[in-house]
Amino acid sequence: MNFSDAFSWVNISFLLEGLWVTLKVTGITILLSLLLGTFLGVIRYLKLPFVAKGVGLVVDTIRNLPLLLIIFFTYFALPQIGLRLNIFWAAVAAMTIFESCMISEIIRGGMNAVPKGQMEAGLSTGFTRGQVIILIILPQAIRSMLPSIVSQLIALIKDTSLATVISLPELTHNARIIYGQETSYVIPIFVAMTFLYWITCFLLSRLAKRLKFAG
């Protein structure tokens, strides 16, 4: 083990470049999956005829597939039908599809925990169903949903490492390149990776707690 050489500025900067890609993929995926997941969760909550069952079938199917398989599909299979994505957007698409389905179940569960009378009370005041969902149901459900959503998003940060199989230059991919060139760097680089993943997930969890108490 050679910590001093392993932690040279060249290696650390290369790891930070990988972390930046990890954060970009994570940030875009979080935004897209929260929007799509909320939409899917609301559809299932409203139990729209035919649509809710179709959405439920798709969501349950994707939730039971390995994320790695979805990554392979977006990068290798979609080009076969004329939809070619570069490595970055293939990873974002795969993770958005997977995370949206996971988050949709959290959203639906949180909304179902709100007393049914809230919907009836909102409708009786003249609100539309959409207004009741946005102004009454979702705000009440957020507190119960937040811990589960944060846990899912923290898992997403770690799951970005799976995209190394399609050579996305994220943190794990760059770390493999470093210790692949010098085997004595394996443990030091693993220590650095551990710290970078930990601090990122820790800061996200702290931010979520601040938002929870502020809400």
Automatic annotation (TrEMBL):
It comes from the Bacteria. It is found in: Cell membrane. It is a multi-pass membrane protein. GO terms for cellular component: ATP-binding cassette (ABC) transporter complex. Its main location: membrane. PROSITE patterns: ABC_TM1 (PS50928). One of its GO terms (molecular function) is transmembrane transporter activity. One of its GO terms (biological process) is amino acid transport. Signal peptide: none annotated. The chain crosses the membrane at residues 20-43, 64-81, 87-107, 185-204. Keywords: Cell membrane, Membrane, Transmembrane, Transmembrane helix, Transport. The keyword Electron transport does not apply. Residues 19-208 form the ABC transmembrane type-1 domain. PANTHER family: INNER MEMBRANE AMINO-ACID ABC TRANSPORTER PERMEASE PROTEIN YHDY, MEMBRANE COMPONENT OF AMINO ACID ABC TRANSPORTER. NCBIfam families: HEQRo_perm_3TM. Belongs to the binding-protein-dependent transport system permease family. This is Amino acid ABC transporter permease. It comes from Aerococcus urinae.
